[in-house]
TrEMBL record:
Keywords: Pyridoxal phosphate. Its cofactor is pyridoxal 5'-phosphate. SUPFAM superfamilies: Tryptophan synthase beta subunit-like PLP-dependent enzymes. This is 1-aminocyclopropane-1-carboxylate deaminase/D-cysteine desulfhydrase. Gene3D superfamilies: 3.40.50.1100. Signal peptide: none annotated. It comes from Flavobacterium tagetis. Belongs to the ACC deaminase/D-cysteine desulfhydrase family. Residues 18-278 form the Tryptophan synthase beta chain-like PALP domain. It holds the Pfam family PALP. The keyword Transferase does not apply.
Length: 302
């Protein structure tokens, strides 16, 4: 595990507002950001239960699939990925995420989108147990009580100076951990990567405080959607700050926070902490799509 540090953002904002980013993306080269946090206690639990196989779920460019594959190999587990989209079966070699996961020992089971929606159903899990034998189930996105426990360790004592803590939201585990470990005078703002209001109920399952709010205006059309404005923002942010942002989660959150600052959402003298939740492995796959659409690619290095 590499040391995480808080990096000041080189943008001058009005009203003495300051922006800092917590570089959770640097925590591990392949199991970065919130994936490291979510898997930490789940892997310990799997070992405590004497499980030898991890089974989980994800899409074509899933950060979670890549992280489970590598962490499983590193910790001596066999890994199985139930992948959304049976059309991907013969496209592994051209998909950087699936190729990486396979190279790290993950066995795939490709299912249709209709079947994938059953992933939480008891009958579907039982069918998988008959097919693959005993396994430790890691939910899609990694979110469960143990994942939230890991995410509670993101904030440290030095972060008590911040009035606002902002993060992207996928399944709700990361923001729940931040809420639980935050101070009462801090406001936690979540920026959903998906359309829809269902996340509020998911977060309430795990969150023990009510000092939080979801801001749903910056999903750019839905999960995985991206446009020229967001690409140009992410590339300009990298040029100015040397911080690469992923386009699915953190890039949209940072865009949203800066837009809200310019719209005077935050009071004067606010100290805002952005949580970089990693996800950079997905950029190679996104750049393949952007080239196909004849759009500029995302920069991750000089």
């Amino acid at each position: 595990m590499n040391p995480v540090f808080n990096q000041s953002i080189n943008i001058q904002f009005p009203n003495d507002i300051s922006l800092t980013i917590k570089r959770e993306d640097l925590i591990h080269p392949f199991v970065s950001g919130n994936k490291f946090r979510k898997l930490k206690y789940n892997l310990l639990q799997a070992k405590a239960e004497n499980k030898t196989t991890l089974l989980t779920f994800g899409g074509a460019f899933s950060n979670h699939i890549a992280a489970v594959a590598y962490a499983g190999k590193e910790q001596g587990f066999k890994t199985i990925g139930i992948i959304r989209g049976d059309e991907l079966l013969d496209k592994i070699e051209e998909n950087p995420t699936l190729k990486f996961a396979q190279e790290n020992g993950m066995q795939f089971e490709f299912v249709s989108r209709e079947e994938y929606r059953l992933k939480s159903e008891t009958s579907f899990i039982e069918k998988l147990k008959k097919q693959f034998g005993d396994f430790y189930l890691v939910p899609e996105g990694g979110t469960n009580e143990l994942a939230v426990k890991g995410c509670e360790e993101i904030l440290t004592e030095e972060d008590s100076v911040f009035n606002y803590v902002c993060c992207a939201v996928g399944t709700g585990g990361t923001i729940s951990g931040l809420i639980n470990s935050s101070l009462q005078n801090q406001k936690i703002l979540g920026f959903p990567a998906l359309k829809g209001d269902f996340l509020t109920d998911e977060i309430r399952i795990f969150a023990k405080k009510d000092n939080w709010n979801l801001i749903s205006d910056y999903h750019f059309g839905g999960y995985g959607k991206i446009n020229l404005e967001l690409i140009e923002f992410i590339n300009a942010f990298f040029e100015e700050n040397k911080v690469p942002l992923d386009p699915i989660y953190t890039g949209k959150m940072v865009f949203g926070v800066i837009d809200l600052i310019r719209k005077n959402y935050f009071p004067a003298h606010s100290k805002i902490l952005l949580i970089h939740t990693g996800g950079l492995q997905g950029i190679d796959g996104m750049n393949i799509k952007l080239k196909q659409k004849k759009l500029p690619i995302l920069k991750t290095n000089d």
